[in-house]
Design a protein that fits this description.
The complex is a heterodimer of chains A (111) and B (113). Chain A has 111 residues and is an all-beta fold. Chain A has strands spanning 4-7, 10-14, 19-25, 32-37, 44-49, 55-58, 61-65, 71-76, 85-93, 98-101, 105-110. Chain A has no helices and 11 strands. Helix content of chain B is 0%, strand content 51%. Chain B is globular and about 40 Å long. Classes of the chains: A mainly beta (111), B mainly beta (113). The A-B interface holds A 30-31, 33, 35, 40-45, 48, 50, 88, 90, 92, 95-99, 101-104 and B 4, 31, 33, 40-45, 48, 50, 56, 58, 90, 92, 94-107.
């Protein structure tokens, strides 16, 4: 069974700081997705990465997929209070579209 | 666009009671899913429906049943609620292709006392 490990589990930073969170898999990713979940809401898809070495940018967020497709990172530049939330990585599995989720990184950005 | 709609948003049940959580999507997605989210456990798949007319067990199916009523609707039933089923339940849908992410509902917070 594939396991996704995210680190760190919790992160509390000041507005304007940079940060990186990580997602590592026990096996090769099929299709890695990153989600952000705000309190009281469901997760919202941020990005999907498929190709090893792929880098995608979404405003201040940079997503990187490892060359061996077993790890990924999310870097946030100049964090803002609106970035606060739970960041989840997930991997697609087979043609049913089932996703396996990591446990998430809880990010708090203080004004 | 409504996306994925879940009802109710909150529910308190007594041990042994039954209830059905409703989920509907308006995006013409083929696949639908039910997850539960517990502190420190992440999102765990209960049941899924790859397409209309099919349902399959996920990681934690015990104590639950599902019905894929039509392409739009996928319900989750607790026949005899237990305190261990206290959780936040999320319904999601997808176009059933790699690279297409899930669209989640806003969740149902269930407490079993």
């Amino acid at each position: 069974t594939q396991l996704l490990e995210q680190s760190p589990q919790f992160l509390s930073i000041q507005e304007g700081e940079n940060l990186t969170v990580y997602c590592n898999s026990s096996s090769v990713f099929s299709s890695l997705q990153w989600y952000r979940q705000e309190p009281g809401e469901g997760p919202v898809l941020l990005v999907t990465v498929v190709t090893g070495g792929e880098v995608k940018k979404l405003k201040r967020l940079t997503f990187q997929f490892g060359d061996a497709r077993k790890d990924s990172s999310l870097h946030i530049t100049a964090a803002q209070p609106g970035d606060t939330g739970l960041y989840l990585c997930a991997d697609g599995s087979g043609n049913t579209g089932k996703l396996i989720f990591g446990q998430g990184t809880t990010l708090q950005v203080k004004p | 666009n409504a996306g994925v709609t879940q009802t109710p948003k909150f529910q308190v049940l007594k041990t042994g009671q039954s209830m059905t959580l409703q989920c509907a999507q308006d995006m013409n997605h083929n696949s639908m899913y039910w997850y539960r989210q517990d502190p420190g456990m992440g999102l765990r798949l209960i049941y899924y429906s790859a397409s209309e007319g099919t349902t399959d067990k996920g990681e934690v199916p015990n104590g639950y049943n599902v019905s894929r009523l039509n392409k739009r609707e996928f319900s989750l039933r607790l026949e005899s609620a237990a305190p261990s089923q206290t959780s936040v339940y999320f319904c999601a849908s997808s176009r059933r292709s790699l690279g297409y992410g899930y669209t989640f509902g806003s969740g149902t917070r269930l407490t079993v006392v």
